[in-house]
Amino acid sequence: MRLDKFLKVSRLIKRRTVAKDVSDQGRVWINGRDAKASSTVKPGDELKIRFGQKSVTVRVEQLVETTRKEEAANMYTLLKEESHKEESDL
């Protein structure tokens, strides 16, 4: 499954166009490698996504073409969530 579609279907990112933009900006990594929107995702892969002030690391558990909101969280396991604070010049 394409990375942008996985991010949208799993509801990690709300819209596929936003998922594509985030991926193409170099803010998503698959197994430690830079990933583009067209990269292939498979079960067992670890994704790290940078959202502004935080990063989320998840493991892909299953791939489904469509899912309901309640079932979307079953597609991945949250491994780590980190906060990034900007250093201010004092």
UniProtKB/TrEMBL annotation:
The keyword tRNA-binding applies. SMART domains: S4. Residues 1-62 form the RNA-binding S4 domain. SUPFAM superfamilies: Alpha-L RNA-binding motif (SSF55174). GO terms for biological process: rescue of stalled ribosome. Associates with stalled 50S ribosomal subunits. Binds to RqcH, 23S rRNA and the P-site tRNA. Does not require RqcH for association with 50S subunits. Key component of the ribosome quality control system (RQC), a ribosome-associated complex that mediates the extraction of incompletely synthesized nascent chains from stalled ribosomes and their subsequent degradation. RqcH recruits Ala-charged tRNA, and with RqcP directs the elongation of stalled nascent chains on 50S ribosomal subunits, leading to non-templated C-terminal alanine extensions (Ala tail). The Ala tail promotes nascent chain degradation. RqcP is associated with the translocation-like movement of the peptidyl-tRNA from the A-site into the P-site. Belongs to the RqcP family. This is RQC P-site tRNA stabilizing factor. It comes from Paenibacillus swuensis.
